[in-house]
Write a structure and sequence with these properties.
Layout lengths: L9 H24 L7 E12 L5 E3 L5 E2 L4 E14 L2 E5 L4 E6 L2 E12 L6 E5 L2 E5 L4 E6 L4 E7 L2 E5 L6 E3 L3 E5 L9 E2 L9 H5 L1 H16 L3 H10 L10 H15 L6 H10 L4 H7 L4 H12 L61 H12 L36
Parallel strand pairs: 7-8
Antiparallel strand pairs: 1-2, 1-3, 1-4, 4-5, 4-6, 5-7, 6-7, 7-10, 8-9, 9-12, 10-11, 11-14, 12-13, 14-15
Length: about 400
């Protein structure tokens, strides 16, 4: 049975067999180290944060330290931290408590956390209301509040496993779900972006935040005359809402719907999402309406109409000049003012008198002519030549002067 060891190639065979065993062992080590569950969790950023170890000791969190399994991270007022595990980032907010269980499991008992797994491993984040599964490639925000926990998905689809429930609830990208411990989750609603001072949303969804700011400013601009002008061009038989937020809301809803690339009834979707308090940037993304396209729709609606026949005067827009953010309306005198043709009409009298009758009573035209004539410079007095030669007296012109198009100029 061991005869293969006694041949001339026995040493080489033993060496080859040994190398095979080492290669297999090395492959096993590589596979095990690639398992994200066994990956270390490192403190990348820490501010006003304290680490509590399983042995009961605690110390201020240090950037670069590895948190062992069972360690808890507590942040204070104004504090925060960032943890990294196998390419995944977890942002921990102020006044939060997060426990590290292993490379793919953590527990949030208080506060808030943002899971950015776009370039890293999955994570199951346990909360008092249930376990939230954030797959690789997703961005999920979890806020453990009282009495509701909010799960918001910025990218990918998160899954909520409520405590005491066998069923699960999916939270799709750009949507959120709120749930109370020991209760069924509420229905899925559009994502509500955090306020302007929030550091997380701009970091993980910069385009979404920028679009939201642009559209909120646009809604404010449409709350006055601009919104009324636009709505009048869309719904000619329906009066626009009174000046204020309601007018801006309705005008922007129609704009977003008209810029949408969805089929069906995008306006109903926009109104429904806004009724559920979805942020404008999120609503526009859900109905596939870009800010640039929304701006173009508004510009086209407020642009002056073109003439319908050759030689027709250019018509103008009677509405006020739009002064809206992120829009670049062309500078045109046809924006604003009263509706009138751009060329001044010429009134042709029924008769063309060759001179003004001095015996006629001074009317408006005669008064104007006399006034202008009186303002003209008088001819210079010329001294009489010697010999009492008669002096030629200049003959007054019988042509009426041109005055603002009121009196015709005759050649």
């Amino acid at each position: 049975m061991l005869s293969w060891l006694s041949g001339p190639r026995a040493p080489q065979g033993v060496l080859a067999a040994g190398l095979s065993v080492l290669a297999a062992a090395g492959a096993t080590v590589v596979l095990r180290s690639a398992d994200p569950a066994s990956a270390d969790t490192t403190v990348a950023v820490a501010r006003l944060a304290q680490v509590y170890l399983p042995d009961g000791s605690n110390h201020p969190a240090q950037e670069g330290e590895v948190l062992p399994r069972g360690a808890e991270l507590h942040t204070g007022q104004g504090g925060g931290a960032q943890l990294t595990t196998a390419g995944r980032r977890v942002y921990v907010g102020a006044l939060s408590t997060l426990k590290v269980q292993d490379g793919v499991r953590q527990a949030l008992s208080l506060g808030s956390a943002m899971v950015d797994a776009r370039d890293g491993a999955r994570l199951t984040l346990t909360t008092p209301a249930g376990a939230v599964s954030a797959p690789g490639g997703s961005v999920v925000r979890v806020e453990e509040g009282q009495p509701l926990t909010r799960i918001a998905a910025y990218a990918g689809t998160a899954t909520l496993h409520p405590v005491g429930r066998a069923s699960t609830t999916d939270v799709h990208a750009l949507f959120q779900v709120k749930v109370q411990p020991a209760s069924l989750p509420q229905r899925e609603t559009p994502l509500q972006l955090a306020g302007k001072d929030d550091p997380w949303d701009p970091a993980v969804a910069a385009d979404l935040v920028a679009a939201n700011g642009d559209l909120e400013s646009l809604a404010d601009g449409l709350a006055t005359d601009e919104g009324a002008t636009y709505l009048a061009s869309v719904y000619r038989s329906t009066p626009p809402p009174s000046p204020g937020p309601a007018r801006g809301e309705e005008a922007l809803a129609v704009l977003v719907a008209r810029a949408s690339t969805l089929t069906g009834d995008p306006l109903a979707l926009v109104r429904g999402y806004r009724a559920d308090l979805g942020s404008w940037g999120v609503v526009a993304a859900l109905v596939k309406a870009k800010v640039a396209d929304i701006s173009s729709v508004l510009d086209a609606a407020l642009a002056p109409t073109s003439p319908t026949a050759p030689g027709s005067p250019t018509t103008v827009n009677a509405g006020p000049t739009p002064n809206l953010p992120r829009l670049s309306p062309s500078a045109s005198p046809s924006r604003g003012g009263s509706a009138r043709p751009t060329t001044r009409p010429t009134a042709t009298p029924t008769t063309s008198p060759t001179h003004v009758d001095p015996s006629a009573p001074p009317g408006l035209v005669q008064t104007v002519v006399s006034t202008v004539t009186g303002l003209l410079p008088h001819p210079t007095q010329v001294a009489a030549p010697a010999g009492n030669q008669p002096v030629a007296t200049p003959t007054p012109s019988t042509k009426a002067p041109c005055l603002l198009g009121i009196v015709l100029c005759r050649k």
